[in-house]
Amino acid sequence: MRGGDSENLEVREGGGLSQLAARAAAGDGEALDEFLEALGRSRTVHRMVGSMLLDQDAVDDVAQEVLISVMGAIGRYRGQGKVTSWLHPIVKRRVTDHLRRQRSAAALDEAVLPAQRISSMVASRAALRTALAQLPEKYQAPLILRDLEQLPVAEVAARLDLPEGTVKAQLSRGRARLEKILGALD
Question: Are 33 and 58 spatial neighbours (Cβ–Cβ below 8 Å)?
Answer without folding.
Answer: no
